Amino acid sequence: MDPIRSLRLQAVRCTECGDARWSLFSSADTAKPCGICGGEMKPERRVPGSGPRQLLHERRSAPRRTPLTG
After folding, report:
1. 52 lies in a domain?
2. pTM
3. How does pLDDT run across 31-67, given as a tens digit for each residue?
4. Does residue 54 form part of some domain?
5. Measured between alpha carbons, how far is 14 from 38 in angstroms, rounded to an integer?
6. Residue 56 lies in a domain
7. What is the bridge-based pairing of β-strands 10-14 and 20-23?
8. Distances in whole angstroms, Cα of residue 38 to Cα of each of 47, 49, 53
9. Which of 12, 19, 55, 58 is positioned for an S-S bond with 28, CB 3.0–4.6 A?
10. Is 20:45 a contact under the CB 8 Å cutoff?
11. How many domains does the chain have?
């Protein structure tokens, strides 16, 4: 993951449908609309490899969280 991190990946995410467009070699363009729904694109805050190196437990066997109630 270190070579990918050094490339400074940039991404934009659609505010309507959640589709992400990643860019390796150029800056991610927020001026272009989403290719799926035509929604507005915003810069993505998350980057690959920013999570923990090793997960505490397998996600499928993790204890279930209670759903949010409103």
Report:
1. no
2. 0.55
3. 889 889 999 999 887 776 677 778 777 767 766 766 6
4. no
5. 9
6. no
7. antiparallel
8. 23, 29, 36
9. 12
10. no
11. 1
Asked if 21 and 15 count as a contact pair (C-beta separation under 8 A), the reply is: no
Which residue from 43, 54, 59 is spatially nearest to 8, judged by alpha carbons? 43
Alpha-carbon span 53 to 43, nearest angstrom: 24
The CA-atom distances, in angstroms, between 62 and each of 12, 18, 55, 65, 67 are 30, 26, 11, 9, 15
Residue ranges making up the domain that contains 14: 1-47
Structure tokens at 69: 């109630």
Give the 3-state DSSP-derived string for the chain, with helices as H, strands as E and coil as C: CHHHHHCCCEEEEECCCCCEEEECCCCCCCCCCCCCCCCCEEECCCCCCCCCCCCCCCHHHCCCCCCCCC
